Amino acid sequence: MEEAGLLNQTSSVTYIRLRGLSVNQKVQMAVFAMFLTFYVLTLIGNILIVITIIYDHRLHTPMYFFLSNLSFIDICHSTVTVPKMLADTWSEEKLISFDACVTQMFFLHLFACTEIFLLTIMAYDRYVAICKPLQYMTLMNWKVCVLLAVALWTGGTIHSIALTSLTIKLPYCGPDEIDNFFCDVPQVIKLACTDTHIIEILIVSNSGLISVVCFVVLVVSYAVILVSLRQQLSEGRRKALSTCAAHLTVVTLFLGHCIFIYSRPSTSLPEDKVVAVFFTAVTPLLNPIIYTLRNEDMKNALNKLMGRLEGKGKK
Fold first, then answer.
1. Name one GO cellular component term (predicted).
2. Would you tell me how many other CB atoms lie within 10 Å of the CB of residue 278?
């Protein structure tokens, strides 16, 4: 009887209203143009990186294998939220079904957590390459890389299932409005008609702890790398510093959001929407820019690919 009552309560909220970024029509049009531009550039940039890495055999190394995974995740991560947000710009109601909301939350946390684990593994890859170069191919052989990739995707899936399960078990009987442009766990659980303090603690201990621990591990890893670089030749040091700087930029932008949102109770702050914009639209776009403009190998491979495509076009 209790389970039946819970299901009835949950099903009483079938649609959720998203407030979006603004109610001003002119602002919405500007936001639409900006997000559409960001999304198109994100798709083009990350797809180009994946194609270039597949095409150029010189890039068939562990670092670029993980970089192609990062580009794929960024494409998926942006696609989870941005297309819906673009469609809602032209809608007054901005409704999303409860099931679609749960699905959006699941994939949002799947790709976000997987990216956190991936950035941590990429830091380990750079640590081995710079600090233990003679053992690099042994420690980071293809079998190890594939196993690490499977592990990070599995970890992201488990994390997302855990958070989504906690969320959908709560009773929802109103209100039905979220002050954001996508569904996320902290905002959705505030709609539950029950006490959610325990769930909030679990979210902080899960998402928040993962973000903070991975950030600390990454900072320590790069600190060790920087100390090691002091003993290397200038040319090798310059190239390694460039790569590490790119990684650190991505890590700071991405994990900064996760720590800000998930390491505190579910309270709304004015900065939440700004941080959410960077998380869903800006960071996935910055990744290809950061990794290509600061990476000579990627730039050379891209130029080679563009030259080959232009040659085929003239024929």
1. plasma membrane
2. 17
Does the global pTM surpass 0.70? yes
Contacts of 104 (CB under 8 A, 6+ apart): 80, 81, 84, 96, 182, 183
Number of residues assigned to the chain: 315
Q: How far is CA 214 from the centre of its chain?
A: 14
| The CATH number of domain 2-170+178-296 is 3.30.200.40 | no
The residues spanned by each domain of the chain are 2-170+178-296
**Burial group, residue 281, by CB count within 10 angstroms (0-12, 13-18, 19+):** buried
Please give the torsion angle defined by the CA atoms of residues 30, 31, 36 and 41, in that order, rounded to the nearest 10 degrees: 100
Q: What is the mean pLDDT of residues 99-112?
A: 93
* pLDDT of 8 above 50: no
Closest CA to 136 of 55, 145, 116, 230: 145
